[in-house]
From TrEMBL:
Protein name: 2-oxo-4-hydroxy-4-carboxy-5-ureidoimidazoline decarboxylase
Main EC class the enzyme belongs to: lyase
Pfam families: OHCU_decarbox
GO BP terms in the entry: allantoin metabolic process; purine nucleobase metabolic process; urate catabolic process
Reaction catalysed by this enzyme: 5-hydroxy-2-oxo-4-ureido-2,5-dihydro-1H-imidazole-5-carboxylate + H(+) = (S)-allantoin + CO2
Length: 177
């Protein structure tokens, strides 16, 4: 992972460097980072996160669904074929999704497919804040929601994932780690 930047260092980045560095804070989310850059100077790391959230909050239902469609299924095809982003690999490991039993794997795959059939976008949850059992329970519970509630709930999880990814990339203190 590259060295963390202080907020003054983040504020000094040109937009191309900023997008290169923060374009993955939201999965395949270079557009979100490109929008956040307009809000410079950032006052703090939480202000940086707030600007990403601000963009996500103003999206239409279709826009929110589009953001969710950029995320891989947890323990799905991309994970099996080694096609996950570096960030997502770390998050899968944190939740214990890299060591599922055959039964757990089947359960999660079936629930993910049922969820996508109902909503038209994948189930998204912050894997660094949930272990595998909580993820399976969450999937079952959230399956009962309606599509608008689920788009908002999914995007709230995107914000949590983004917050943790940004923490890995930038810090409030002016000195580098
Ligand atoms: N589907 C889904 O939730 N994917 C994600 N969650 C997370 O923490 N990292 C991801 O890639």
């Amino acid at each position: 992972m590259s060295q963390k930047l202080s907020i003054p260092e983040v504020n000094a980045l040109g937009y191309e460097e900023f997008i290169d560095r923060f374009g993955g804070a939201v999965e395949h989310g270079r557009l979100v980072a490109a929008a956040a850059w307009s809000a410079r100077p950032f006052l703090s790391a939480s202000d940086l996160h707030f600007r990403f959230c601000e963009f996500l909050d103003q999206l239409s239902q279709a826009g929110k669904e589009a953001v969710l469609r950029m995320y891989p299924d947890l323990a799905g095809k991309l994970a099996n074929s080694g096609g996950l982003t570096e960030e997502s690999v770390r998050e899968h490991k944190a939740a214990g999704l890299d060591s599922l039993s055959a039964d757990e794997h089947r359960t999660l795959s079936e629930l993910n497919e049922a969820y996508k059939t109902k909503f038209g976008f994948p189930f998204v949850i912050c894997a660094r804040e949930n272990k595998k059992d909580a993820i399976i329970q969450g999937l079952k519970r959230r399956m009962e929601n309606d599509v608008r509630t689920e788009a908002v709930t999914g995007v709230n999880e995107v914000k949590k994932i983004c917050h943790l990814r940004l923490q890995d990339l930038a810090e409030d203190s002016t000195s580098k780690m």
